[in-house]
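Slide 14.
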Amino acid sequence: MTDDELIDHAQRLYDLAASRVGSRLDLIHLRDLVPDLLDRLRSRNEPDHEGEGTRSF
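Slide 15: predicted structure.
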């Protein structure tokens, strides 16, 4: 899954989970998706070269 697909999927699950029509299954799927999303965000924030600070978005 690309970063954009991951973000879109997380947004859809969040919208479902936050709405009144959301189900417990939507929350479970969102819970399962969050670790991958966090890993990708953390990897983007790692320095490219030794001695460099973290990048900001």
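Speaker note: DSSP finds two helices and no strands in the chain.
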